[in-house]
Design brief:
Blueprint (H helix, E strand, L loop, with lengths): L1 H10 L2 H4 L24 H28 L14 H6 L7 H11 L3 H15 L3 H26 L3 H4 L15 H20 L9 H20 L3 H26 L3 H38 L4 H34 L11 H10 L19
């Protein structure tokens, strides 16, 4: 118990979290000064579960009927013939030739029959097009809301127009009610993504996306506890913009509106590069790395905050490479013939080789995938 108290005391030391000569009592929330309150962070988890409930309600009552009205069916792949030996060896992955040969001998089948069984069995595990359409519809709807609400909240805030206001008089930055809601709902959404990711359509960049969600949550927690909500709100706004078109392009692809998908994909690609590889590094990270030290004395937590921002940039660069690869293949193929983020590592490989796939982030996230987010 004593060890835990000493650890907590060291962890929450003002020397770590706040600029020199500032203590926690200096930014304790009061009725007059509503500073960010770390005790409010658990609200984001409650909001996450509320968002999950809202999502599954909308998918069932709105998105699925809408998808069916567009001609998207809840079709399932043809089932593989029952085979206890093959089923026991099945693990969802592609078998090596050595395994196929051994299983063919055990079942008295030809290797070609075993390979066909594996293809059919793996196809059974893939979600239907309607399921994927509903998933993308939810994320598209959320990003539209989040971007519009973010603009509404920040439009009259000084730091949107002059980023140095994120540092002037820091850390004495009260948090208004609208910024509180914007922050908490956004954090709740990323918590919900971290949870639902294990049940949603599996993408090739599963772990990159998981790291992205956790890094984003950690970044928001750091910015909230350290009273850096102003900078955190700008990061959120920059991220939401392109994601709208990523999810919309996927929806168009699943509904077989190929020309619309191609058009939206072009918009997405331009917005992604402008916001994630332009505005984000050259406005936000430049400001936190170059301008901030000129205005605010640096402290340990700020370096961690900046490191998390840089980690997101690394992920952006990875997804940008995928997007440009998809765009290149699309130009050669004449259309987007892949789903930006394939449902499995093998699928994305097949799609990229076949024509053009849309594989990227959803989130923070790339693009119109024709066959995973």
């Amino acid at each position: 118990m004593e060890l835990a108290r000493n650890f907590a005391k060291a962890f929450w030391s003002p020397y770590v979290w706040l600029p020199p000569n500032i203590t926690w009592s200096d930014i304790e929330p009061t009725p007059e000064n509503k500073y960010a309150n770390y005790r409010h962070l658990p609200y984001s988890l409650l909001i996450a579960f509320a968002l999950l409930l809202l999502r599954y309600t909308l998918e069932r009552l709105v998105f699925a009927p809408f998808g069916r009205s567009l001609g998207i069916k809840l079709s399932r792949a043809k089932k593989a013939d029952p085979n206890p030996v093959l089923e026991k060896a099945y693990n969802g992955k592609k078998w090596k030739q050595k395994q196929i040969t051994a299983l063919a001998k055990q079942t008295d089948w030809t290797e070609r029959q075993v390979e066909r069984w594996l293809r059919l069995r793996r196809a059974q595990d893939k979600p239907s097009t309607l399921t994927k359409f509903c998933e993308n519809s939810w994320r598209c709807s959320y990003y539209i809301y989040s971007f519009i609400f973010g603009l509404y909240v920040l439009w009259d805030k000084q730091w949107l127009w002059d980023i140095n206001h994120c540092y002037y008089n820091y850390p004495f930055h009260p948090v208004s009610d609208d910024v509180w809601w914007y922050f908490m709902v956004s954090m709740g959404f990323y918590w919900s993504l971290s949870i639902s990711q294990f049940f949603d359509v599996k993408h090739k960049d599963f772990w990159q996306m998981f790291i992205h969600h956790i890094a984003t949550i950690a970044l928001m927690i750091f910015s909230w506890v350290g009273n850096l909500a102003r900078m955190g709100s700008l990061v959120l706004l920059v991220h939401d913009c392109a994601d709208i078109f990523l999810e919309a392009a996927k929806m168009a692809k699943y509904a077989k509106y190929q020309k619309l998908c191609d058009f939206i994909f072009v918009i997405f690609t331009v917005l992604w590069i402008v916001t994630r590889m332009g505005v984000y590094p050259f406005w936000i990270i430049y400001s936190t790395s170059i301008e901030a030290p000129k205005i605010v004395p640096m402290f340990p937590a700020y370096y961690i905050f900046n490191a998390l921002l840089s980690l997101l940039l690394v992920l952006h660069a990875f997804w940008t490479y995928l997007i440009l690869k998809i765009a290149y293949n699309a130009l050669n193929a004449g259309q987007m013939e892949g789903d930006i983020r394939s449902d499995s590592s093998e699928e994305i490989s097949e799609e990229l080789n076949g024509a053009a796939t849309n594989n990227v982030n959803r989130n923070s996230k790339p693009v119109a995938r024709q066959k995973q987010n």
